[in-house]
């Protein structure tokens, strides 16, 4: 899971940022999903959220009293980013396994889902790469700009996830696949809202 070089990680990061790449991200993984990139992306997002969230709080504070660092931002960022990146993909993978096998047993689908749990982790991990530039520019004291930056980050990463997950979730029944995509987008919207209001309120 860590057998990957820097060139491959950078290529995967760039592919996650492109709105309309020439092939799907699972094809880019080419049967070799890694956890190295997702781990360091998540770690970078955590520290940049803490840094820029602290800057945002400093700019909003009254400068007549000493500024106190809020280290709960660091633990909050770690819990949010690591928790989302670790547990949501496992839940999605389990749901895909359950519903695709149910569809196969009932004759209502094409059978087993073709994505592994490590591929789910890689997909969600690389989807987080957009939050690095978003966090770097979202410390502005101009609130509307922060809303726009976070909305763009949400749009890019949600498009990346849905575009790459749709061929996988479509092995389930049509109604189930639509519900799964709605849940994926809804949880991702929750992440974006949490980032906005926990760190850039």
Major sheet details: none
- Measured as a percent range, the helix fraction is over 70%
Low-confidence stretches: none
Number of helices: 8
Q: What is the CA-based Rg, rounded?
A: 18 Å
Q: What is the general shape?
A: elongated
Content of β-strand? under 5%
Distance between the termini: 37 Å
- The strand count comes to 0
Arithmetic mean pLDDT: 86
Report on the structure:
The chain contains eight helices and no strands. It has helices at 6-17, 25-29, 36-60, 72-106, 117-127, 131-137, 143-169, 174-199.
What is the topological layout?
Elements: H1 6-17, H2 25-29, H3 36-60, H4 72-106, H5 117-127, H6 131-137, H7 143-169, H8 174-199
Helix pairs in contact: 3-4, 3-5, 3-6, 4-5, 4-8, 6-7, 7-8
Short synopsis of the structure:
This protein has 201 residues and is mostly helical.
Features:
mainly alpha; 74% helix; elongated; 201 residues; single chain
């Amino acid at each position: 899971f860590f057998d990957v070089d820097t060139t491959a990680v950078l290529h995967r990061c760039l592919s996650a940022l492109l709105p309309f790449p020439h092939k799907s991200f699972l094809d880019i993984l080419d049967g070799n999903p890694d956890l190295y990139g997702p781990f360091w992306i998540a770690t970078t997002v955590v520290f940049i959220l803490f840094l820029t969230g602290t800057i945002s709080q400093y700019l909003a504070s009254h400068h007549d009293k000493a500024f106190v660092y809020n280290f709960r931002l660091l633990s909050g960022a770690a819990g949010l980013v690591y928790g989302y990146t670790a547990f949501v993909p496992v839940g999605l993978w389990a749901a895909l396994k359950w519903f695709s096998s149910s569809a196969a047993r009932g004759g209502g689908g094409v059978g087993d889902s073709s994505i592994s749990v490590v591929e789910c982790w890689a997909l969600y991990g690389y989807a987080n790469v957009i939050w690095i530039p978003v966090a770097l520019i979202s410390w502005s004291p101009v609130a509307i700009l922060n809303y726009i930056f976070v909305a763009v980050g949400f749009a890019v990463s949600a498009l990346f996830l849905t575009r790459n997950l749709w061929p996988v979730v479509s092995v389930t029944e049509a109604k189930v696949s639509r519900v799964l995509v709605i849940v994926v987008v809804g949880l991702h919207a929750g992440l974006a809202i949490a980032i906005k209001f926990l760190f850039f309120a």
